[in-house]
Amino acid sequence: MTLENIYLIGLMGAGKTTIGRQLAKSLSMPFYDSDKAVEESTGVDIPTIFEFEGEEGFRDREQKMIQKLTQIKGIVLATGGGAILREENRKVLKDNGYVVYLQCSVERILERTRRDTQRPLLKTDNPKERLQLLFEQRQPLYLACSDFKIDTGIHKSKTVVNRILEEYNAVNHPNQ
Hints:
alpha/beta; Rossmann fold; 5-stranded parallel β-sheet; 5 strands
């Protein structure tokens, strides 16, 4: 039985890292976070990369990292919220694994991220407006790229993990 990679996509604060860790543990698979991997490879945090290289510079680094991580087999990968903005990333995710869109309302994300200082895109006078805009821009890309969608704002993480496992197993082992 080959375990297909599971890639988690969705807005910042949707729970990709939290769900990803639990999912990886349930499947006894290694967990990777593309944002953390970029930070480890550069030696600086994402806000610093944004400050010195802008969003475009960060997206270049993110794309290289996703390219690298998707070559590893049998992993769970949490991607950055904007990873799907680049067509190359959407294609490599779709082609190399099972893509799960963790959807969450803007209100819930605001609650979860309001004290987080590590979110460069939310350093604005109106974070709710910014999140709403990001949601509207990215939602069609998340939907087009994903194999399965689940709302992390209304379900407990354990329920989300169990639902993903059910869907993932149904796809990977359709005759069981």
